Amino acid sequence: MKIAIISSANDNIPESIIPTVDSLVNSVKKISTVKILTGGSAGIPGYIIKKAKMVGVETTAYSPDENKDSHNKRIDNLATYHFDEVKYHDGFTVRSLAMINEADCVLVLNGRMGTLSEFTIALEEGKRIRVITNTGGIADHLKKITILANKDFPNQVFFSRNPAKVINWLAKK
């Protein structure tokens, strides 16, 4: 199973969500064949990647940069050596679409504008999306945004405060 993690690249990770992120990684490692996909950024996705590598979970970065050198020069990117695989794309939109299309499901927590953009791409691409709420950022507003969109997304989006519950649900599908 390939899980795309979309969240904030901001390095100022709120201390209040560290236990949630740690619980998320501990739950993911229980899935025998899982790979975590991110946009290659630092911040919360970078923290998750580092923790995942510590417990033996395979990882892939979908970089918006043209090559390793340009990726590693960007201050909001996590260095490529943290990933098992890095795929380079020409820009953020192309990167995000490639990552989302390759994912079996999308997991959202916290986040800012990029997270909102990737969330809506995942919705339109028909991906199963799980949002961990109470993590701050845009994730805590996505339920309202889906209502405002006035479009049905039957069984596509699931909201929960409990990362273990979200991962267990994904593992059963």
Report what the structure shows.
- The mean pLDDT is 93.
- It is globular and about 40 Å long.
- A seven-stranded parallel sheet has the order 4-3-2-1-5-6-7, with helices on both faces.
- With 173 residues, the protein is α/β, with parallel strands linked by helices.
- Helix content is 40%, strand content 19%.
- The protein has helices at 18-28, 43-54, 68-73, 92-102, 113-124, 142-148, 163-172, and strands at residues 2-6, 35-38, 58-63, 85-88, 105-109, 128-132, 157-160.
- The N and C termini lie close together (10 Å).
Give the helix level as a range of percent. 25-40%
Major β-sheet annotation: 7 strands, parallel
Helix/strand-derived category reads: alpha/beta
Give a count of the beta strands, DSSP E runs of length 2 or more.
7
The helix count comes to: 7
Integer-rounded radius of gyration: 15 Å
User: Approximately how much beta-strand content do the residues carry?
Assistant: 15-25%
H and E order: EHEHEHEHEHEHEH
What are the segments in which pLDDT stays under 50 over at least 5 consecutive residues?
none
Silhouette: globular
What's the average pLDDT? 93
Distance between the termini: 10 Å
**Neighbour order of strands in the largest sheet:** 4-3-2-1-5-6-7
